[in-house]
Amino acid sequence: MRPSTGEVARSREHIVATLEPESGRLLAVCCHGCPWRFAPFCGVSVLPRLPALRPRVCGVGRWFTSDLLFGPEGMRLQSPAGGAAQAPDWTKRRGGAIRDPDVACTGQDGGQNRLGIGLDSCVIPLRHRGLSLVQTTDFFYPSAEDPYMQVSSKMAAAHEQVHLSRSEVCGMMRKELFSEQEFHQSQTHIFIVVGASGDLAKKKIYPTLWWLYNDGLLPEDTYIVGFARSKLTVQDIRKQSESYFKASAEDADKLDSFFKRNSYISGQYSGAASFQNLNQHINSLPNGAKANRLFYLALPPSVYHDVTRNIRETCMSSVGWNRVIVEKPFGKDLESSNRLSEHISSLYKENQIYRIDHYLGKEMVQNLMILRFGNRIFSPLWSRDHISAVILTFKEPFGTQGRGGYFDEFGIIRDVMQNHLLQMMCLIAMEKPVSTNSDDVRDEKVKVLKSVAPLTLDNIVVGQYIGDPEGQGDAQQGYLDDRTVPKGSLTPTFATAVLYVQNERWDGVPFIMRCGKALNERKAEARLQFRDVPGDIFQSQCKRNELVIRVQPNEAVYTKMMTKKPGMFFNPEESELDLTYGNRYQDVKLPDAYERLILDVFCGNQMHFVRSDELREAWRIFTPILHQLEREKIKPHPYKYGSRGPPESDELMQKVGFHYAGTYKWVNPNKI
């Protein structure tokens, strides 16, 4: 019988480790309480990467774990009936052939009396195949009274058990996952939020650091320093940001512990003295002078020059590494972007600069490479021979709602198309990289961008939303009704653009980017539309196949295809093969994009960050059309709040070869 929800839990605090008594060397890591073969039965997620990819777990040999659980010479486990359950003979483990990974993990008796290894997985309180599992306040372990666990005292003499904090184990996990990067769990890390009083810090950065801390994914000795012009305290930071933490009442003590690691310093962004004061404060923290330092610039671009210079001259660690996270926008056009890049590059090496585009941290955007290069079925189809069009969509159902002043300075093309959608296009169009090394991946993305000609006026439609008199609330207000928007503004709130990748694989295939505010739904996706079936025998009833990667909301991958309509008639009908993450991975919490990316910065992995040459090529494509729209004061097409956008957008898409039948819409299985 499947256990009830109350019987399933996860250990988030401690994992039992085994140390060699004489040297203190780490021998084995084991999350007690979850029989390996029990996890699939109860639906609890065992982290599959660690035990499945290689015969090691967190860099620890499995035979050590066998010794931990069953003794160095294959000890006997007493059954409840008093008989002996002979454990397998491990005496030939070093000299014999390598065992099957599953046998190595569960034991050659099929796992009847064995405990498995894995992170993030426990089951309480129940029995399974004779094992009693109990919970303590901070970790899980097999009941000492259980007859199966009455093992010879020889095991206790062989090894000493200590409780290893989850973050230390995750540090080993990070070493496995980022084997080419240095990540020293024992070192002190200081995360400096420059612009700590702003919206980005309040809504994203502090909540993200809390989630990483709560999940044990920050290094053990991590301190957070806020820096801004406002005269605030840590309590002020907590008050303004805690509502975004999604913390429960049970997290109160841990929240207190998190904020004890926080401090705040006020100062001027342009003043060297303020940054000297900041550096003195950093040095005053435990091991602060030697700590690794991460500077997150949650600031408007107008102060980047002063801040980056002051950090370089006064706040750099002379012993640990230094990394700077820069938020978009990275300039307004090619010229301003180049100036900013040249300035930052004069102060820092490229491997110290992390230009963050949060879309590269989203689950389904990262999934694009796996889908593309990890599935044989897609390889022969992924070209101009089979794909007729690629559509990249970003839609928001709300307008600027009183924040139009900031948006008007940039517009939808700079805000979404030139970065988020273009990055998705690169991941779809790129050739297979030599490896998943950061620069190997980014090299291929740059090749795609270099194959794209600058966007021209005949391949773009821009729009601006107007109020819907029949709408409700904000829907009655148009963009120009926002008091923060300059009167008569021509800034687009909607754009559809068509780009072409001029290489052998994609020649002639339109990459259609469509984005806008105040539209009919919230949606971000990549849609690959395939060509018509040749030799149609169904009297034109077949619609084009589509592969859709839904980024948000309700992450999913589905293939739109034709199947026989159920019933007596022999007619084709549009349907789908559907992988909806909410159904397939019910027990998995997908991390926020910022969680992934900030953890990547700690780990030194730049694969999901924008390199300077990527940025330069992106602006080369969009700068001419941006200047033309502004210079010629081209008026955007009006569209109603809550609509699909201006009709001219659909006309452009149809003109370049995208077929919108309008007869089918994906049904979210979670809402059935």
From TrEMBL:
EC number from the UniProt entry: 1.1.1.49
GO molecular function: glucose-6-phosphate dehydrogenase activity; NADP binding
Pathway: Carbohydrate degradation; pentose phosphate pathway; D-ribulose 5-phosphate from D-glucose 6-phosphate (oxidative stage): step 1/3
Cellular-component GO terms for this entry: cytosol
Occurrences of domain Glucose-6-phosphate dehydrogenase C-terminal (ranges): 369-660
Pfam families for this protein: G6PD_C (PF02781), G6PD_N (PF00479)
Keywords: Carbohydrate metabolism, Cytoplasm, Glucose metabolism, NADP, Oxidoreductase
PROSITE patterns: G6P_DEHYDROGENASE
Enzyme class per UniProt: oxidoreductase
Reactions this protein catalyses: D-glucose 6-phosphate + NADP(+) = 6-phospho-D-glucono-1,5-lactone + NADPH + H(+)
A single GO BP: pentose-phosphate shunt, oxidative branch
Compartment(s) of residence: Cytoplasm, Cytosol
Domain Glucose-6-phosphate dehydrogenase NAD-binding: 192-367
UniProt xrefs under PANTHER family: GLUCOSE-6-PHOSPHATE 1-DEHYDROGENASE, GLUCOSE-6-PHOSPHATE 1-DEHYDROGENASE G6PD
HAMAP family linked: G6PD
Role this protein plays: Catalyzes the rate-limiting step of the oxidative pentose-phosphate pathway, which represents a route for the dissimilation of carbohydrates besides glycolysis.
Family under the similarity heading: Belongs to the glucose-6-phosphate dehydrogenase family.
Protein name (record): Glucose-6-phosphate 1-dehydrogenase
